[in-house]
Amino acid sequence: MAEDVPLEIELKYRLTNWRQVHDLVPKLPTPEAHFTQTNFYLDDPKRSLRQAKIMLRAREITFPVGMAKGLGKPPVTITAKRRVKAPKDGLFINEERQQVMHIDDWRAVQYGKETLELTGPALGWVAEQVPSLSKLRVLGTAENIRWQIYSDVFKLEIDKTVFSNGDIEAEVECETELPDAARAHIEALLKQHHIEFKPSTQGKYSRFLEKFEGVSDWHGD
């Protein structure tokens, strides 16, 4: 029997003016969570993953001072994604596989003291897809400030992303099995609060590649 492909179905809307994210958040229900994500993008020197159209990311989470008291160090999440179809009207459909690792183990990889072991649901799959993959390294990072907010039945992820060149962007994302209903809700919400927006055509990694590696033909996440 064929493997069930794990899918991520997500709507993404870019704010025309990123500063309006600070107008939007106070007008919505109190966030369920608020934290900063540091995205570390990975590939080998030959850019083998890019050629295979696979995005590989390690994501570290930090909470505002005092909010994560007693929780210890959150693990780092490793995510591998591959596009299923081209984004249309802000709808992204990707294969997505994830696994976690202890932050201390990730630090050893991040600083080049250890090699990332290609085992587990995400990294093992990547190794199967790209047998010629050589030693992975961090290409670069992006910092993402995220508010998770429930609006009606939809969990919105409102992001302010700061790239290492100083570019700032903002968007509203919603992972959902009901994209048509979510689309109607989000667009009505943004219009109600006079937020200028447009459906996204690129994910964060695509924008990272365009800014830092001059890649304009990547249309995945």
Descriptive notes:
- This protein has 221 residues and is an alpha+beta fold.
- It has helices at 21-24, 48-51, 103-110, 123-129, 179-192, 204-213; strands spanning 7-15, 33-43, 54-62, 76-88, 91-101, 137-151, 154-163, 168-175, 197-199.
- It has one domain (7-213): Beta Barrel (Hypothetical Protein Pfu-838710-001).
- Strand 6 and strand 7 form a beta hairpin.
- The chain starts with 6 loop residues before the first strand and ends in an 8-residue tail after the last helix.
Keywords:
Hypothetical Protein Pfu-838710-001; 9 strands; globular; 21% helix; 221 residues; eight-stranded antiparallel β-barrel; single chain; alpha+beta
